Amino acid sequence: MQILITGGAGFIGSHLCEYLINTGHNVTCLDNLSSGNIQNIEKLLPETRFTFVEHDTSIPFDYPAERIYNLASPASPAWYSRNPLATIQTIVQSTFNSAAAAEKYGARILQASTSEVYGSPLVHPQTEAYWGNVNPNGERSCYAESKRFAETILSNYHRQYNTDIRIARIFNTYGPKMRHDDGRVIPNFISQALNGSPLSIHGDGNQTRSFCYIDDLITGLVQLMEESEESGPVNLGNNQETSISDLAKMIINLTGSKSDISCIEAPCEDPKKRKPDLTRARMLTGFMPKVSLEKGLQKTIHALIKQTKQ
Ligand code: NAD
Ligand code: UDP
Predict the structure, then answer these.
(1) Angle, nearest 10°, between helix axes 293-309 and 185-195?
(2) Any idea what the Cα angle at residue 71 is, between residues 236 and 225, rounded to 5°?
(3) CA angle 296, 299, 303 (to 5 degrees)
(4) How far apart, in whole angstroms, are the C-alpha atoms of residue 38 and residue 64?
(5) Ligand 1: which atom is nearest the Cα of residue 116?
(6) Which of 62, 157, 206, 259 is 20 to 30 Å from the Cα of 231, by its Cα?
């Protein structure tokens, strides 16, 4: 198939490009390299079935496709809050542009949505039926509200034009190819542990997340695109819940680091708990994450060590 991926040079996008090329597809990757990295897709560049176009997807584009994965968006809180208006513009316009391309070419489109649409959740674990608890004026709103609106854009393309849509609500995913300066907790803690500097826990470290290894997420995304007919939102992630202080201890142990832990002020409206209810994904496609946090962290640590040597 002819597959278009916006944000394809980023962490998730580059793994997806590689998977789809390895399974015989033609892939066009659009990315403005703002948080992505050309090294992530370097191996694919000589491949005739792979095309990279440096392009800001908030500006319209026109590439024929049978499938579109719309991933273009900063994803780390540290990155998306640097220029909040640009974040809004990227998420909203890239979704409009991707949906218009899907409508024009009759393509199926998958939107990379996020657990952040649940905000600071009052329901635990989070099911897709929960509408969330988001402050529309808060510091995370540039990302959370835009991602909510992106779901609205696709749902209404589906309603109005019968566009074939998929919405993946992705929960915290990690793995090789994340930038060492990404700012999200796993690459941050690993970089700090490897440098021997204190691991910076925000607040008391009792807040939880449920971390999914990249290979499991790629399986889930492709399954959702190809094996399900669901046009509503579907949670994808891992439901093993971990506190941030336990994560810090695990990373110190796995790296053999002598780093201490330091507790610093938490960012405002940092969700206290997050864990996906995966029943819908399991029923639709049999989705079941396989990689344990310990195994996934080991692979990520090795990759980050290799990356920093290059
Ligand atoms: P990432 O920052 O590594 O990748 C995002 C990519 O989008 C980068 O390559 C970046 O250069 C590109 N991009 C940003 N703005 C662009 C623009 N205007 N035009 C073209 N390209 C642009 O982050 P990621 O973790 O790989 O996230 C990918 C997608 O998945 C994002 O949409 C994110 O919101 C979503 N997501 C990720 C997670 C996660 O835990 N990793 C969780 C929920 C949702
Ligand atoms: N966090 C932390 N130290 C860091 C980076 C993040 O304690 O150096 C915390 C953050 O406050 C949040 C959790 O780790 O509670 C996950 O943060 P991340 O930025 O990875 O993703 P989020 O789930 O907040 O989007």
Answers:
(1) 60
(2) 50
(3) 135
(4) 23
(5) 43
(6) 62
